[in-house]
Amino acid sequence: MPDEWFYVADRKKMGPVPFAQLQALAGSGQLKPADMVLQGGTTKWAAAETVANLFQASSDYLPTAPSEQEQAQAREGFADMIEEAPRHMKPHQGGLVLTLGAVSIGMGSIGLLAACPSCTQFMVPFPVISLGLGVPAFIVGGKHLRLMKSGLMDPQGEGQTRSGWICGIIGTVLGVLGVLIFLVVVVLIGAMYRSQD
After folding, report:
1. Using CA atoms, how far apart are residues 104 and 137, in angstroms rounded to an integer?
2. What pTM value is reported for the model?
3. Which of 4, 9, 37, 65 could tie 16 with a disulfide, CB 3.0–4.6 Å?
4. Is the bond into 155 cis (omega within 30 degrees of 0)?
5. Is the distance from CB of 158 to CB of 92 less than 8 angstroms?
């Protein structure tokens, strides 16, 4: 996990700041136990009081239980911040990337049947389709994963995007193998017909 932390102050998402600076904010009283914090690379916000060693670093600030008003303000600010966060992020397209990758694996698998000489003529489109779907899944999936890592795209689709990216790689490999098998079978069939003449 990176040493990046975000926190909510005045209903605004602040950060990233290193953990030492977050401890300093807690020690000075600017960050209260009920305030919400988020560690970089994660998607779950938590109350600052639940973060280990956050309030223990400063001996001159002893955390007190927040008043009900402070807790209500923190929850309200957190709710507003959650609604605002996706506005600056692009929506994920994990479902699309996963679909492209999964279909490319299916087409590539069917395309491997091109090794059967009686099926070769019917199997030609499958490895080509596999390449046509697998390459975009691989490229788009990789790009979206980088955008999620940099905080420019909604990270909730990371699992789907990563799965689609991996499926795109596998589908591309299967497509290339299918095309190569098709070419080898065509060459072998051509050699057999020449040897019969």
Report:
1. 9
2. 0.54
3. 4
4. no
5. yes
